[in-house]
Amino acid sequence: MLEGFSGASRIPELRRRLVFTALMLAVYRIGVAVPTPGIDGQALASFFDAASGTLFGWVNLFSGGALERFSVFALGIMPYISVAIILDLLKVASPYLDELYKEGEAGRRKNTQYTRYGTVGLSIIQGFMIAVSLEKIQAPGGGSVVFDPGWSFRIMTVLTVTAGAMFVMWIGEQITERGIGNGISLVIMAGIVARLPSALTTTAQFVREGELSVFLLIFIVALAAAVTGGIVYMETAQRRIPIQYARITRGRRVYGGQSSHLPLKVNTSGVIPPIFASSILVFPATLAAFVPSLKDYAQFLTPGGVIYDLIYVVLIVFFCYFYTAVTFNPVDVADNLKKHGGFIPGIRPGRFTAEYIDRVLSRITLGGAIYVSAVCVLPTILIERFNVPFYFGGTALLIVVGVALDTVAQIETHLLTRNYEGFMRRGRVKSRRGA
Predict the structure, then answer these.
(1) Are residue 233 and residue 157 in the same domain, yes or no?
(2) In sequence order, what are the residues at sequence separation of 6 or more whose Cβ sits closer than 8 angstroms to the Cβ of residue 131?
(3) Whether the Cβ atoms of residue 262 and residue 243 lie closer than 8 Å to each other
(4) Is the same domain home to 124 and 270?
(5) In terms of residue numbers, what domain contains 180?
(6) What's the total number of domains in the chain?
(7) 143 and 286 housed in the same domain
(8) Does one domain contain both 182 and 270?
């Protein structure tokens, strides 16, 4: 792999892309440290220490700590992702959006335009809600979070965080176009990885103070390596359905007759199910922070409880099947195979092929849902049972490993197209998309 990176440094285009990506991510992290005016930073930090299980703590995790500082990038890339997911889900109910996804490059540009407009609208709504919420928040010590509440603070906050969200979206799009990897995913990954040094520092402090034994630390490190390896394996795992193309004779030439395969990912839905499930489960705790009468009901849905874990797993399994059904249409796949003369050996083309693909996809999705559920419940077990001082596993680890795999696969593609050996001598790095 080190030889692969040395090969990458000798390719001018790839070197420029890597440097550009690093610079854009550095700009993003600098923006995270720029606070929004009118906020008491110390009081807000005290509030987030007590709100780790609420919606604020969850959004703060994916913003790389931008929300707890309430920086100009407080909303991060979440509005863009939320709108993109909503548009994906609306394909089921809107024939127009469904056709738009099939129009190729023109449809992709129009869909991107709709996503941008939706991001602006959602950022304005979220910025206003956060501004109003901050005015009502009292830090655990009794101090106020906002220096001068009122409409001037609300308008300034909405304009600031909306502009910040659009700038983060621009950074992600620029990385995708002129850098390496998926820019939006890399921005999320940068926010998550940025919290790793503080987690390691806290862990070392726990070991020095005797709150975490050395043997338990070794066990956690070994478990981390095993879980990371398992995620890499499952994210690249595929069920390959054999495809045979019929031979077509035109004059003296024979076309077709090749054998191929249809790759079906075990985890087709990616990290969307745990994100949806987490966002639903954190709402009771968030509402309880503003409505004291709901605290008795919200305590049943706090992380670490049996009821919380059970509902969390059920929601993940449900969204795994739901999002897979939204993003993968076996009928369209069967029709495309039929148009190009392809068929599955032993299965009749058309409706029977679609039913077979759907049956296989349903079986492997169950395995993928169980795998995602196990990884996402792992942090709760480690924190509650072993007093692990950081959030290891879950959606964050899935995102980091998945984005790393995609980025390495793209670098590998650049290396191989220029006759370099790439990262691995014995084969290419598998892409998570099954390409």
Answers:
(1) no
(2) 153, 154, 157, 158
(3) yes
(4) no
(5) 9-194
(6) 2
(7) no
(8) no
Look at residues 77, 87, 273 and name the one whose alpha carbon lies nearest to residue 189: 77
283 domain-assigned = yes
- Could you tell me the CA-to-CA distances from 73 to 15, 23, 179, 187, 347 in Å, in that order? 28, 17, 21, 11, 52
pLDDT string in tens for the chain (435-residue length): 455 555 566 777 888 888 899 999 999 988 888 888 887 767 676 666 655 545 555 566 666 666 777 788 888 888 888 888 788 778 777 778 777 777 777 878 888 888 899 999 988 988 888 888 777 776 666 666 777 778 888 899 899 989 999 999 999 989 988 888 888 888 888 888 887 777 778 777 877 877 777 887 788 788 878 888 888 888 888 888 888 877 665 656 655 567 788 888 888 888 888 877 877 776 666 566 556 666 666 666 666 667 778 888 898 899 899 888 888 888 888 888 888 778 888 888 888 889 999 999 999 999 999 998 888 887 777 666 666 655 555 677 888 888 888 888 888 777 777 655 445 455 555 555 443
